[in-house]
Amino acid sequence: MMTKREQFYRYLGLPSFNPLELDIVKAEGVYLWDRDGKEYIDLVAGITVSNIGHRHPAVLDAIRKQLDQYLHLNVYGEFIQAPQVQLAVKLVSLLPSPLEAVYFVNSGSEAMEGALKLAKRFTGRTEIISFRNAYHGSTHGSLSITGHESLKNAFRPLLPDVAMATFNDRSDLEMISSRTACVVIEMVQAEAGIVRAEENYIRELKKICDREGVLIILDDVQMGMGRTGKLFSFEHYDFVPDILVLAKALGAGMPLGAFIASRNVMDTLASKPELGHITTFGGHPVSCAAAMAGLEVLTEGELIAEAEMKGRIFSEKLAGHPAVSAVRRVGLALGIDLSQVGKRNDFQQFSLEEGFVIDWYMFRPATFRLAPPLTITMEEIDKAINKVLAALDRLL
Ligand code: PMP
């Protein structure tokens, strides 16, 4: 008999040969338990998915109710499915004009694909500008606009007419012209290790894009849904994107993505040709029911308002440790640089032994990701900080 671990390696296609190998049997709130009963505090929320914690009771209730109604009925956009409609109404009520039409898909990458196609279709242009050190997904289109050669090179040719700009560098804004369909940006570059867009820079970007008729696509897949201390990251700025891309925490633990635009822009996907973007499972009713419950939890309590304070506690307690060289933070998303680059594997090992889960930012190798569920309590924060400090101590 093969062990489950052996079957994992024998039968699954894997994205790397260096997985964490945790074998979790139960998750609840900020906690994970493995098959030996060992408890871990989840300090990455499944990579910013479980913003309201694992298995929130309101989400489980909504899922159970939807299970009694229907699962998949038909491809997206044919039947009037109440969970999709209700969620779209709720999202639009929380968004500024003109973000008023929600297209549901399954994931962040797929939402980005839809957004890129929409921008090309609406403007009739082909050039796409995105930023170095941005991650936008793993499908061909979203990979084409991802800003790191290490991920892209082996898969060329990718999308043509993609240009890369340097984030927060004003001189690169000159690249934007009447040839440009869209600029794809994050308000906080997550995979760069938490790098925030400067306000003046966004103001300038918006001015140039308006002048040239260029759409701005905001990738809020990772930083949306309360992570930054606002429901959507652009709310920290005097700026509204033309197309907003959401996924990850949107589904409250279920797979769901969305791209959101004005009615005028969105409608271009539905004609000449019809079926400009289609999806079988997009906006799955169970995912939408879960998302609706999750959104209510997020917006009705103080969770989002508390993200800033909770994040600050983590940064204040961890920044002074001698094994840490710098901390960058927005809300409850932290990028913590280890002083020694070569200690990454050790720290990973120590974190599991101490009973917490972290992760690494893709384009900043010695920087670990700390982004716990926004529901983490003050006691849990205390407990988590002590564990992280203990693991850091072991690096010295
Ligand atoms: N954009 C950003 C900023 C992301 O962090 C991710 C996922 N890490 C994606 C897009 C792609 O989302 P998905 O993995 O759901 O395709």
Tell me about this structure.
- The chain is an alpha/beta fold and 396 residues long.
- It folds into two domains: 4-55 and 302-393, Aspartate Aminotransferase, domain 1 (Alpha-Beta Complex), CATH 3.90.1150.10; 58-300, 3-Layer(aba) Sandwich (Aspartate Aminotransferase, domain 2).
- It is 35% helix and 19% strand.
- The chain has 13 helices and 17 strands.
- The radius of gyration is 21 Å and the shape is globular.
- The model has no long low-confidence stretch (mean pLDDT 97).
- It binds 4'-deoxy-4'-aminopyridoxal-5'-phosphate.
- Residues 47, 107-109, 112, 135-137, 186, 190, 219, 221-222, 247 line the site of 4'-deoxy-4'-aminopyridoxal-5'-phosphate.
- The site of 4'-deoxy-4'-aminopyridoxal-5'-phosphate has 14 residues, from helix 5.
